[in-house]
Amino acid sequence: WVATAVMRTSRLELDEGVLARALPIAQKAVELARASRSPTLEVEALTLLSEILRDLGDTQGAITASERALAVCDAGRLAARVRGEVLRTKGILLRYVGRVEEAVDAYIEALAMFRGVGARRQEARVLVSLAFARFVSEQFEDVIALCMDAVRIDLGLGGRFQIAKTLSNIGQAYARLGDLVQGLSFLRRARKAEER
Question: From CA 87, how far away is CA 155, in angstroms rounded?
Fold first, then answer.
């Protein structure tokens, strides 16, 4: 209970944008979660620590926290969904530091985990992350295909949270391929979706 309370306090500081206060509290939450011998709590605390370190600009520290969370997932035999979330987070961090192929590997593993357990919403999120990594690698046809899959999943679930961003990615990919008409069409759809 103490670990959970400390973690929530750190999350509150993060949400308020007070990273200097959030960091030591998150570090304490990791210690308490480890002491409680709850792998689930420890992974949650490490993921929070990773997020704070990323926002502070310590990307390597954030990657290290993600790797520690993955080790706890493996040792604690946690649910594939939990491991998938940590992998997606790690992939984003790897992409930030230019390690795009490693990020792609993390996304693909996360995608397999989410598909294995039928976590469709998380599957759509990781498809968009994977698409962005492909965009960075200038594989624009892959971007379009991955984003279209994500849109289909989101529409099937009735969710529209990610759709504007995803449509925008499709539009930009078409534009990079030289199809400006199709690109502008998707960008207009993205703007309408965002306004809705």
Answer: 24
Strand ranges inside 65-168, DSSP E:
none
Angle at 71 between CA 66 and CA 73, to 5 degrees: 90
User: CA 190: distance to chain centroid?
Assistant: 21
Residue 59: half-sphere exposure toward Cβ, Cα within 13 Å = 10
* pLDDT for position 160: 67
Q: What's the CA gap between 53 and 59, in Å, rounded?
A: 7
CA atoms of 143 and 171, how far apart (whole Å): 10
Q: 170: how many CB neighbours lie within 10 A of its CB?
A: 26
pTM over 0.85: no
Are the beta carbons of 177 and 139 closer than 8 angstroms? no
pLDDT in tens, 180-193: 999 999 999 999 98
Q: Are 3 and 29 in contact (CB under 8 A)?
A: yes
Structural contact between residues 102 and 118, judged by C-beta atoms closer than 8 angstroms: no
